[in-house]
Amino acid sequence: MLKDGDKVLVAVSGGVDSLALAWVLSLWEKKAPIHYDLMAVHLDMGFDGDSHQKVEKEIQKIDVPYKIERTSIGIDAYKKSDRESGCFNCAKQRRKLLFDIARAGNFSKIALGHHKDDIIETFFLNIFYSGNISTMVPKQVLFNGDLALIRPFAFLEKTHVIEIANAAGIIPVKNPCPMADQSKREDMRTFLATLFEQNPSFKSNVFASLSNVRSDYLLNSTKKGI
């Protein structure tokens, strides 16, 4: 995911996953046999409160260069849209701003804190709500190779990420968005947790299936051969 000379922008929301990733990448930067430059960025979504200051305090513990970008993206989406379109528009605008910051700073990689559980949840969300079979990948190359999204925690479960955060003394900052606990992802997370409690092997089997696709046994959208 990383190569010598990379400029890496790590997106820090304030949650445990992204803060733990910033800590790990900062540690790797000092020990890895390659050199890369690292900067953390936090996009403040414009909600009332001091969450951006709390996130900044946690980033300062990690001792990594950082940028706090104040925006009204979240609050605008919350006020102007319903639950579903609001979350979609907020995510879309956040990603666009991340791309703009990366482009302006000549960053070659954007590091995201998504882990195995996020990848599984996305798989089911896309099936149920988008009607396609897809998910997030550990590395996604964009803009003809000028930029890549990387997810170094892709093969770690959430419990492992929490262990890393605890070892680093990280204190996650609560998401100030009023819809944070009412999203489709949160609903899917609750549903899957119940399913995986019934049989712990379900999670590993689902994750394994994402790289074991038998395309000959999927429907052909063109209906040829039917």
Summarize the structure.
Helices cover 48% and strands 13% of the residues.
Q: Helix amount, in percent?
A: 40-55%
> What is the topology, as strand order, of the major beta sheet?
3-2-1-4-6-5
CATH class: Alpha Beta
Q: What's the CATH topology label? A: Rossmann fold
One letter per element, helices H and strands E, the order comes to EHEHEHHEHEEHHH
Structural account:
The chain has 226 residues and is α/β, with parallel strands linked by helices. The chain has one domain (7-212): HUPs (Rossmann fold, 3-Layer(aba) Sandwich), CATH 3.40.50. 48% of the residues lie in helices and 13% in strands. The chain is built from eight helices and six strands; from the N terminus they run βαβαβααβαββααα. It has helices at 16-31, 51-62, 73-80, 83-104, 116-130, 158-168, 184-198, 201-209; strands at residues 7-11, 37-44, 66-70, 109-111, 139-142, 147-150. The protein has a six-stranded mixed sheet, sandwiched between helices. α1 links the parallel β1 (7-11) and β2 (37-44). α3 (73-80) packs antiparallel against α4 (83-104). The protein is globular and about 50 Å long.
